[in-house]
Amino acid sequence: MEQKFNEIRLNTYESYAMTLNRRIIPFYKPLKLTLSSIAPQHIHDFYNAMIKEGLTANTVHKQSVIIRGALEDAVKKNIIQYNPVDRATSDQEKICV
Questions:
Q1: SS3 category, 17
Q2: Which residues are CB-neighbours of 24 under 8 A, at least 6 positions away?
Q3: What's the pLDDT at 92?
């Protein structure tokens, strides 16, 4: 997030931070994953959990943009070999990641 601060508008940054704190971190923190252990299935499970909570496919897609960006940064830094978001699916075809 801090790396994106100067690249995006303040209200976008605040929206990303809120999404991270309300949805993404609470979902992934109990799993105790490392960057190198995140698999497409974890992303798939997140999508489906958010849909089950009643979020729209569009909202889940916006959350996926945040996850994708963070993992893409890890790819660029050679922390992981590929972005698991690129290989993830959801049970609802409307989520285009």
A1: helix
A2: 46, 63, 66, 67
A3: 62
Please, which pLDDT band fits residue 93 given cuts at 50, 70 and 90?
low
Domains identified in the chain and CATH numbers: 2-87 (1.10.150.130)
Q: Quick one: which H or E segment has residue 11?
A: helix 10-19
> Which DSSP category does 95 fall into?
-
Tokens at 11, concatenated: 């209200």
Q: Which of 1-10, 41-50, 65-74, 75-84 shows the lowest per-residue confidence on average (mean pLDDT)?
A: 1-10
DSSP states of 33-88 as a string?
A: --GGG--HHHHHHHHHHHHHTT--HHHHHHHHHHHHHHHHHHHHTTSSSS-GGGG-
Residue 40: count of CB within 10 angstroms of its CB = 15
Distances (CA, A) of 6 to 9, 10, 24, 70, 94: 8, 9, 22, 15, 31
